[in-house]
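Tutorial sheet, problem 5. The two components below are modelled jointly, 544 residues in total.
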Amino acid sequence: MAFDIDEYLVKPGDKVDLSGIDTRSTPFWDPDDKEEGKAHLPDLQQRMESLQELLWAEGRNRVLVVLQAMDAGGKDGTIRHVFEGVNPSGVRVAAFKRPSEKELSHDYLWRVHQEVPGDGELVVFNRSHYEDVLVVRVEELVDEERWRRRFRHIVEFERMLADEGTTIVKIYLHISKDEQKERLQARLDEPNKNWKFETGDLVPRAKWKQYQQAFEDVLSETSTEFAPWYVIPADRKWYRNLAVSEILIQTLDGLDMAYPPPEEGLDQVVID
Amino acid sequence: MAFDIDEYLVKPGDKVDLSGIDTRSTPFWDPDDKEEGKAHLPDLQQRMESLQELLWAEGRNRVLVVLQAMDAGGKDGTIRHVFEGVNPSGVRVAAFKRPSEKELSHDYLWRVHQEVPGDGELVVFNRSHYEDVLVVRVEELVDEERWRRRFRHIVEFERMLADEGTTIVKIYLHISKDEQKERLQARLDEPNKNWKFETGDLVPRAKWKQYQQAFEDVLSETSTEFAPWYVIPADRKWYRNLAVSEILIQTLDGLDMAYPPPEEGLDQVVID
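Model answer (structure tokens):
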């Protein structure tokens, strides 16, 4: 599969119209070959595993993956499938839920900055500072003047991280309103999915259009050379897993990593 | 004393020439009235104490004071004298020394951001992120391209803090090379000051001019409306204490704070 990740890239300055992006499209895989697509994932997981081992061994780069989506958009499932098999020593998932009182008493980037990757680490943000221009905006938790200023803060924050050695990849999992309905319904119907259902999830669903508008602004205002957004059609989970894996693999491949040279004289060592 | 703090303000865009600023000047106090000057400090400490209590009780504003100076420039002494009597529950000093291995494995703002004030807090940075464009620059710990980019990071970081509700005051304690010699000598000569002497302090002293140049760039590049620098003549400790106190008092005064309104019906409460 020659997978051109630029297909999904939001070019800096582009105005994004989400309604024009088909949530079921699979341009790099025949949609009738779903089973073959699923069977291809382990190959990608293996590549991911090797690249992450190299990242950790070299200890020079830092990688930050930001995952955003509507509820039931597949953030948890993506993390589970794409990172299956990686070494947890060098990989960390930071989930940003409703902020605590202590977090709210600081600026919104405070809790986020604490979780950014260190040397050799790969950190996945399951939700992120973008919630502070998404839910915070739609639910009118701060006034417009205040959340509008945050686009600049966020771009400059990410610029600083990038300048200082962090590779940033931001992924929006794009699902349709119908697909969300099906997934939420499954959480109601299937006992072992009940724990994932929260009545609160129906609130953003009722404001679907406003959230899509807020996501469009995020994608349009904050996709940069140093911290690009990718919009992934995510109604088909198997394709979504392939697409996200490809983006991360190609990004890690681009880092031009190498194992550190062995200690000198290692070939003379005799272990008795 | 009508103390005009704007006298010490670095106006945004100004090019600072430190050699043109007299480290012994005392424009708002007769230098012959040193004893009266010293006797005036407790009044200022009391005002500081009241304002900080209000800040803490109101719990709405956040105040960040950044202190920078050459070694023996008086950072510790300033903190001791200016903040004598404040309530430690709402005041915190964060000292940034040589970064740890874990800190070095992250961007230079990582450890600093963790220490910024929360609601109602006043935090003093004894040294700060500015070391990453001062000692790091002069000692060539990173290349010029990299430290030059940091001016922008820092300005944008402080803009974000300010936009989100932090009042920032940055103070450079300006001493002469002769005054530093005297103070370092005292650390050698007086047994109870020996603990403050580090041979390492002689290294930056030997590069005095380069450090002054680096400070001039910091002051010129990063003094903004939302995070202004003040340059305080600091050879005379008694005057320095008055000047720093005045700056902080007038800044806190400008916040227009008020105690939260009492719970309703409080006047009906009978305690038996």
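Marking note: The first strand of chain B starts at residue 62 and ends at 69. Full credit if you identified this.
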